[in-house]
Amino acid sequence: MSMRTQYCGLVTEALLGQTVSLCGWVHRRRDHGGVIFIDLRDREGLVQVVCDPDRAEMFAVAEGVRNEYCVRVSGLVRARPAGTENAGLNSGKIEVLCHELEVLNPSITPPFQLDDDNLSETTRLTHRVLDLRRPQMQQNLRLRYRVAMEVRKYLDAQGFIDIETPMLTKSTPEGARDYLVPSRVNPGHFFALPQSPQLFKQMLMVANFDRYYQITKCFRDEDLRADRQPEFTQIDCETSFLGEQEIRDLFETMIRTVFRNTMNVDLGDSIPVMKYEEAMRRFGSDKPDLRVKLEFTELTDAMQDVEFKVFSTPANTKDGRVAALRVPHGGELSRGDIDSYTDFVKIYGAKGLAWIKVNEVAKGRDGLQSPIVKNLHDAAVATILERTGAQDGDIIFFAADRAKVVNDSLGALRLKIGHSDFGVEKGLSEQAWRPLWVVDFPMFEYDEENSRWVAAHHPFTSPKDEHVDYLEADPGRCLAKAYDMVLNGWEIGGGSVRIHREEIQSKVFRAMKIGAEEARDKFGFLLDALQYGAPPHGGIAFGLDRIVTMMAGADSIRDVIAFPKTQRAQCLLTQAPSEVDEKQLRELHIRLRTQEPAKTV
Amino acid sequence: MSMRTQYCGLVTEALLGQTVSLCGWVHRRRDHGGVIFIDLRDREGLVQVVCDPDRAEMFAVAEGVRNEYCVRVSGLVRARPAGTENAGLNSGKIEVLCHELEVLNPSITPPFQLDDDNLSETTRLTHRVLDLRRPQMQQNLRLRYRVAMEVRKYLDAQGFIDIETPMLTKSTPEGARDYLVPSRVNPGHFFALPQSPQLFKQMLMVANFDRYYQITKCFRDEDLRADRQPEFTQIDCETSFLGEQEIRDLFETMIRTVFRNTMNVDLGDSIPVMKYEEAMRRFGSDKPDLRVKLEFTELTDAMQDVEFKVFSTPANTKDGRVAALRVPHGGELSRGDIDSYTDFVKIYGAKGLAWIKVNEVAKGRDGLQSPIVKNLHDAAVATILERTGAQDGDIIFFAADRAKVVNDSLGALRLKIGHSDFGVEKGLSEQAWRPLWVVDFPMFEYDEENSRWVAAHHPFTSPKDEHVDYLEADPGRCLAKAYDMVLNGWEIGGGSVRIHREEIQSKVFRAMKIGAEEARDKFGFLLDALQYGAPPHGGIAFGLDRIVTMMAGADSIRDVIAFPKTQRAQCLLTQAPSEVDEKQLRELHIRLRTQEPAKTV
């Protein structure tokens, strides 16, 4: 009665001599010496089906099938003739001699070959159903599933409970822009889609669930970059009664387990921990890519009295920075290379790119080749050579500007050179998985535009115990119990110990100039919850899309999402978003601002 | 370093003599003979902590703690004094002699006692964080998690893959009302939140994923009844290359496995299957509650020539029905009971409730007590007694009207009587789990208002192979490959074999008077997908909220959802939905229709 007895890709020599029924798609059909060969494909792979003309009825069907026809085959598993085995296929030692062939559904000619690797993204997303048939997309989504399932297994074993939090929730215009949902029953009122379940998971801790997780959609209405989608999936976790270190241990074990069980990758016994301050100092980034072996050298203090204004001005400015990046073997870079790097750093706001080629370090100043070295006094030159550990054949690049510009531009240059063909060839980067915890983030960043401190992580992050007094005295010095997990330069997860006492939460709001009334209006339900014996708690959220993208080696998170949106936030397959009936708008108590007329019913 | 070594509820005599650290909430604090007893609660349960005054510092802390304070205790596990054991507690044989007591967070006085069972729903939802601390809610959400996890394990073992489908999708104003999400990037355009992932899961089948599932939120903007929420959770499944029977087998095994593994309930070896037509005939319902042993008796044909117009008119009307419900021992019902049942059936549109008490069946007409029997000729009376199998002491109720009114009113009466104290006492219903498949649903229902056929299930449901010709000739006769799983009168799941051939899909649209252009506009992406060798496929969706509500014996699905909405679609905890800033509306290219001013920034 069953349409099939086996998956195509799982028919092997273990079934020799047996009759099997298979269902799948015609991947390729070849007519060879009067015999028709069909490569039949299902989700487990391909099998070769041989259609002999001696079964006339079946053969007539075989003559009619085309690529992507959905068919059912029944036939005999037999060994392939010696010399025609295909070691690249799981089923490569056998073939199926076709007895019956039924077309379950024909196919019109597909707009592209499934094995065409040069399709535009527009083509792929428009014909997503066919694009998803491609083996790479099949593998990506199955990997995604396995990752999610490994996460669930691990968290289940650790006593975590998946609890669903609302999708229709309250708009709190902090952070990113909300997606809004007009309420029909409550005119003039709107739900927001959650940017994260942050407050709900904290309330679940107050409610004594102790360990919570959820693999859930989050929404941010932001302009999209390559690695962003309007809706994305978080592995969202929270636990009570654990300290920062314990929380990190719990979740780094999770990540190590997932990598081991899905990718057979060993991330090492323990993930190194680096303070935010050190990461910025050495790499100019709070998510340093440790595969690249280049590091910054701090020079701000040593450049305050040089004649070269490009260096001395930022060196003497609050918030200025002068830093160097030594590139071993960089002496081999051509003037053209250096020019293109100069253009590159300008993207990040740098005004130029100073450099020194170290021809012969033993000769000091005379062994250097550089447009700038004449403007640096001997002590400065000596300090540069000493601190960078310069060796013959190196090039040293410099950035001098506001710290942010230095970090961004020299940080980007570090990655650019490290991952360039030159960098790979010279061993300046490695192929590896290099995870890292970055910890001790600042509590606040200063928002120049609005002259106030804003939360660097989110306003529910706990300050370090010994920094609570800074909340009022010097918010900029206050560090947080926050931690990010970084992998190869991507932030894959971030979290913190949360504030569990109402008076600390209120202090944090005050430090951010959020008044008592505003705080109550926006977060009253959290402040209330904290008053009923809220437990110490903390957690983390991992970006599932991003983790799977890295694992799959995909170019974009769109390659690990079944039905993604374009960078214009559109679904090319279903044509969402779309216009709606005027009646729908009326029921929701809204009207359009635009001139475009709504369709009338 | 750890705050705790054990969960409170898991400290047993196995730990006698050991020092433990516990964290939790003060459930109750008693001062007894100069000693303070604290019942300490965490998610695993309670443990008794004894605070002796001989440790003065600790004792002073103990004197200060109040209910719902969050505290950390460390102390010695010792046996309770003989005679003070509490068999109702897992930890009832031991107590913890407190050495250290730390207040992690105090609590203001809660607005209610956690063990108060008479709280209004408004109070519970407003203070949901405290309400969730109640043991019943803890158990309900843990049961919900276990059910979901058992589903995942089963489907994983069967080769199903969880694939996420979009939350921001296309509005298709079929079926229920959509929740809409205005697009910022595409002015005048809207996303819709999914009513179900139906079309996406079908496209995943066309895309060769073969077996898909997802436990996912769905959204319907309908006026809410007791068992409805704006967002609800579906266990959504789809598979390729299986027939109707195979699909049902796969998923009834899932449900049986889940009941066994979470509730230790055996649902039997196989779930009975009943045709829609039979269910309506015998029970007046397509989701009959088989715990109730009462059944309809069909009398339409036998009442066409009786004098009693109340019966003969519907019996002679197309779409009319006359049916009886025999209630064993119903002769004991008082006139007051009968009057109240008469009022009850009026809720369902019945104009009255005819009845016959069967005092002595052997005496025929003379053995009956009834206001109506005088208007029925002898043959009609004989038929009634024979077909109902009337016995002395029974009452027979009658409904005669349009079939829908008969089914609704007599069906409701059947449940009302069966589950009444009388019904339970007389064995007219049982305490049991009575699952059932209802199959062979009609493809279409006639929409009188718009004079057209509409899909009874959804328009992607496959007709029975032998009924394809009815699509054009007689849509009302056309049955579908659709099936519902019914449990104790609730529909817990529903699904169908889908249409996989484009020409059948187009015929179904035509039968529903959906023109080619409209079909293309709304479902073009599906029609396209079907043309590329779509496989035979089908599936089912189960309502997780409802299944867990039944398992938990809860009054409402709100008791198995952490943060539900009220029947006014509001969250009393966070005050969602809420007003939003004018700036937000402007960015979304919409304005309010109402008079209420939006807040200005």
TrEMBL record, chains A, B:
GO BP, one annotated term: aspartyl-tRNA aminoacylation
Reactions listed under catalytic activity: tRNA(Asx) + L-aspartate + ATP = L-aspartyl-tRNA(Asx) + AMP + diphosphate
Keywords, in A-Z order: Aminoacyl-tRNA synthetase, ATP-binding, Cytoplasm, Ligase, Nucleotide-binding, Protein biosynthesis
Gene this protein is translated from: aspS
Positions that bind ATP: 220-222, 229, 491, 543-546
SUPFAM superfamilies noted in UniProt: Class II aaRS and biotin synthetases, GAD domain-like, Nucleic acid-binding proteins
Keyword ATP-binding appears in the UniProt entry: yes
Entries under Pfam families matching the protein: GAD, tRNA-synt_2, tRNA_anti-codon
Organism: Pararobbsia silviterrae
Parts of the chain that traverse the membrane: none
Family of this protein: Belongs to the class-II aminoacyl-tRNA synthetase family. Type 1 subfamily.
Subcellular location: Cytoplasm
This protein's record includes keyword Transferase: no
HAMAP family: Asp_tRNA_synth_type1 (MF_00044)
Residue ranges, annotated region (Aspartate): 198-201
GO cellular component, one term: cytoplasm
Domain Aminoacyl-transfer RNA synthetases class-II family profile: 141-564
Domain of life, source organism: Bacteria
The name this protein goes by in its record: Aspartate--tRNA(Asp/Asn) ligase
Matches recorded under NCBIfam families: aspS_bact (TIGR00459), PRK00476.1 (NF001750)
SUBUNIT field: Homodimer.
